[in-house]
């Protein structure tokens, strides 16, 4: 059952894709037909085509063939096949002057190969510019004024002298109010000239826009294919303005077909690249374009412009229809899936493809519009659709750029929110880390203090307690040891109190405690501190070692030196080390050798500070010092 449902679903999807593609093709055809009918009606003067004329050929002056009837061909032209290959043909039209008071004019849909126009034997002068003939030029409409002094009330005769060899061709024409003809001429120029020029300008702008924008991934191939197509389309449009007029006839034909072949190859490549469908690699398209361009030269080497036309015109028609079918299939398949915007793209591109195909079919089969049998195709539609292609492409690019900008803004907002959340998380993590660091520092300091108090105070008091219980310690000895324990406790507390302060302030606190005891013993205290050294900070453990070092040194002076003055010094050496020293004027080293335990303690303090201990005798006493690495200066 599941497989059956999947098969039905797949068939429904395929059917819906076909229906959607058929609808897009039908809408494109309808839009193109309506737009083409509106343009042709605007470019057509009021009135009807003359259905039948007379024609005769002229081989030499004074020699002419009999008059032959000729009817309007759907091109729309009047065609006469001349088996005698006379160089000139005269087409004749007779008409009566209308009763209207408006000025009359002759509207000739194009003037290619029309050498002269006469009214009642008088040569007429064109009121509008005449485009010089070229491979595709000479097809602009031309207006002649019919002067009233030449017109007759009845049986007026218009003669058209047409050049040619085997086939004599006269374009369709109208006789009517000249003001109405100028309005039709303006519309024809707007469609076949102004819009073509505008399309070239817009296409060049889109080319520059595509070249300036950054492209990534498969969008790069789409942009390159679009730029190449617009370049080929622009050159093709320029060829309609006679840019090859200076070339000889065969060279004009070769140039025209080379441009057309390159344009068709670029159109096929664009269809594959834009729809992201599998197709030949880009170098294959280049090789095909090069081969067709070279092939267009071969007929010119073996014949004249007529030979080039007979060989390359069928090839151009077949290749155009094949490329249009290939590109149409690509765009219709592309539009049948994906977002609705693809339908819009497909309709625009299908309009351009239909215009290219209709131009090729009309050149060969002379089409007329289905809405009116009297409304023929008189101008090329593909050059005008170049404007549609450029505008559509630019619209799609702007839409994609807008969508990319909105997507970028949304991504930036998401990133901003994520960064804000990450910043909050990082700040909270940093605060937690700081709290954990502080907690670890407090725990480590607590453990260190507990070890110091257990090993120092605890051991000292425990030893004293045991000796007192056993009667081995006297009252005076107990007083001394309890006093030392209190001093050690005060040092621990002092190291904690001055943890956030510099070394100078910590030494000042030590002086306040030690100076009264020295004064009671008759010892004066001199103070010599270097400001740079006093600004240094120490950790709590290092600060405690410094204070204990000083405590031990002062205790040795009180016990053994017999001095009446000491000097405490703090300096910063040139090598960056701090030096703290105690100098007394006592009895010297001879009597201090018994104080070995105190000196050992000071050496241990120096080692724990990462420094060195020095003991030496001076001229007037003894000097002990410790040197250790300096810490940061205070910013206070």
Description:
The chain has 13 helices and 17 strands. The protein has 636 residues and is α+β, with helices and mostly antiparallel strands. The longest helix has 89 residues, at 382-470. Helix 3 (218-239) runs antiparallel to helix 8 (382-470), helix 4 (249-275) runs antiparallel to helix 5 (282-302) and helix 12 (540-561) packs antiparallel against helix 13. The protein has helices at residues 2-42, 178-212, 218-239, 249-275, 282-302, 305-335, 341-365, 382-470, 475-497, 503-520, 531-534, 540-561, 596-608; strands at 52-60, 63-64, 68-73, 77-81, 88-95, 104-108, 114-119, 122-123, 142-146, 156-163, 167-171, 173-177, 524-529, 565-572, 577-584, 612-618, 621-629.
SS-based class: alpha+beta
Estimate the strand proportion. Answer: 15-25%
**Number of domains as seen in the coordinates:** 3
> Total number of β-strand segments?
17
- C-alpha Rg (nearest Å): 55 Å
Low-confidence stretches: 1-13, 591-595
The secondary-structure element order is HEEEEEEEEEEEEHHHHHHHHHEHHEEHEE
**Helical proportion, percent range:** 55-70%
Largest sheet: 9 strands, antiparallel
Distance between the termini: 86 Å
* Shape field: rod-shaped
Number of DSSP helical runs? 13
**Taking all residues together, what is the mean pLDDT?**
79
What labels would you give this structure?
3 domains, alpha+beta, 17 strands, Jelly Rolls, 636 residues, five-stranded mixed β-sheet
């Amino acid at each position: 059952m599941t497989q059956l449902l999947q098969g039905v679903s797949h068939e429904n999807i395929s059917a819906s894709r076909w229906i959607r593609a058929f609808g897009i093709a039908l809408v494109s055809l309808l839009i193109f037909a309506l737009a083409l009918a509106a343009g042709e009606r605007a470019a057509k003067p009021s009135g009807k085509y003359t259905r039948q004329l007379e024609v005769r050929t002229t081989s030499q002056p004074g020699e002419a063939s009999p008059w032959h009837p000729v009817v309007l061909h759907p091109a729309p032209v009047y065609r006469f096949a001349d088996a005698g290959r006379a160089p000139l043909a005269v087409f004749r039209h007779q008409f009566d002057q209308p009763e209207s008071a408006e000025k009359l004019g002759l509207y000739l849909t194009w003037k290619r190969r029309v050498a002269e126009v006469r009214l009642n034997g008088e040569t007429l002068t064109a009121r509008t510019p005449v485009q010089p003939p070229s491979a595709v030029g000479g097809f602009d409409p031309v207006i002649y004024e019919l002067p009233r002094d030449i017109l007759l009330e009845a049986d007026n005769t218009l003669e058209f002298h047409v050049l040619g060899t085997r086939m004599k061709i006269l374009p369709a024409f109208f006789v009517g109010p000249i003001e109405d003809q100028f309005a039709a001429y303006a519309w024809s120029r707007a469609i076949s000239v102004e819009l073509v020029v505008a399309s070239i300008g817009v296409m060049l702008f889109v080319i520059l826009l595509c070249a300036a924008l950054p492209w990534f991934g498969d969008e790069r191939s789409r942009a390159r294919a679009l730029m190449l197509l617009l370049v080929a389309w622009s050159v093709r449009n320029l060829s309609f303005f006679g840019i090859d007029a200076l070339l000889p006839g065969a060279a004009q034909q070769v140039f025209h077909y080379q441009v057309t072949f390159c344009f068709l190859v670029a159109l096929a490549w664009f269809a594959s690249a834009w729809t992201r469908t599998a197709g030949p690699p880009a170098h294959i398209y280049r090789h095909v374009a090069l081969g067709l361009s070279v092939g267009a030269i071969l007929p010119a080497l073996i014949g004249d412009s007529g030979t080039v036309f007979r060989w390359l015109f069928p090839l151009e028609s077949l290749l155009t229809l094949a490329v249009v079918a290939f590109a149409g299939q690509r765009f219709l398949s592309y539009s049948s899936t994906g977002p609705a915007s693809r339908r819009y793209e497909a309709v625009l591109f299908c309009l351009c493809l239909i215009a290219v195909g209709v131009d090729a079919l009309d050149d060969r089969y002379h089409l007329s519009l289905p809405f009116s049998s009297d409304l023929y195709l008189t101008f090329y539609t593909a050059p005008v659709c170049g404007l549609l292609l450029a505008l559509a492409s630019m619209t799609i690019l702007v839409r994609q750029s807008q969508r990319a900008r909105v997507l970028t803004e949304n991504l930036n907002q998401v990133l901003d929110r994520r960064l804000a959340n990450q910043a909050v998380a990082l700040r909270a993590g940093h605060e937690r880390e700081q709290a954990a660091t502080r907690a670890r520092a407090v725990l480590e300091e607590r453990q260190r203090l507990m070890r110091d108090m257990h090993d120092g105070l605890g051991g000292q008091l425990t030893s004293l307690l045991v000796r007192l219980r056993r009667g081995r310690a006297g009252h005076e000895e107990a007083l001394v040891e309890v006093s030392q324990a209190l001093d050690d406790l005060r040092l621990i507390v002092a190291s904690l109190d001055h943890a956030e302060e510099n070394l100078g302030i910590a030494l000042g606190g030590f002086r306040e405690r030690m100076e009264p005891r020295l004064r009671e013993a008759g010892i004066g205290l001199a103070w010599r501190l270097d400001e740079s050294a006093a600004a240094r900070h120490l950790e709590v453990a290092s600060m405690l070692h410094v204070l204990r070092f000083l405590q031990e040194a002062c205790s040795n002076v009180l016990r053994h030196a017999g001095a009446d003055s000491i000097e405490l010094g703090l300096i910063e050496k040139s090598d960056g080390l701090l030096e703290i020293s105690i100098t007394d004027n006592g009895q010297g080293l001879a009597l201090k050798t018994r104080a070995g335990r105190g000196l050992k303690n000071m050496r241990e303090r120096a080692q724990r500070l990462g420094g060195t201990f020095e003991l030496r005798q001076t001229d007037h006493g003894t000097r002990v010092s410790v040197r250790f690495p300096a810490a940061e200066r205070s910013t206070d």
